[in-house]
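If you are new to this repository, start here. Below is one unmodified record pulled from the training split, so you can see the exact layout before writing a loader.
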Amino acid sequence: MSPRLTLEPVDTVPSDSQVCHYDELSEDAKEELPLLTVSDDVCVDGSIANGFQNCDLVKYTDYYEVSVV
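And here is the target side for that same chain:
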């Protein structure tokens, strides 16, 4: 079963959050990120999901909360 990944825009960044910037992501995660910002819930390859595991938030055009299930 493929992991499901969701990115939700957030207005505030908690001080204890682990923030990853777009340029710190793997190439696979960078390619998938634009789709994830406009989709509610996407099944992704495990290698892409792993690229987001250490991130609570991703800074792209805005800050996005990362959820991997």
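Two things worth knowing about this chain: The longest strand covers residues 4-9. The beta strands are 4-9, 19-21, 42-43, 57-59, 63-68.
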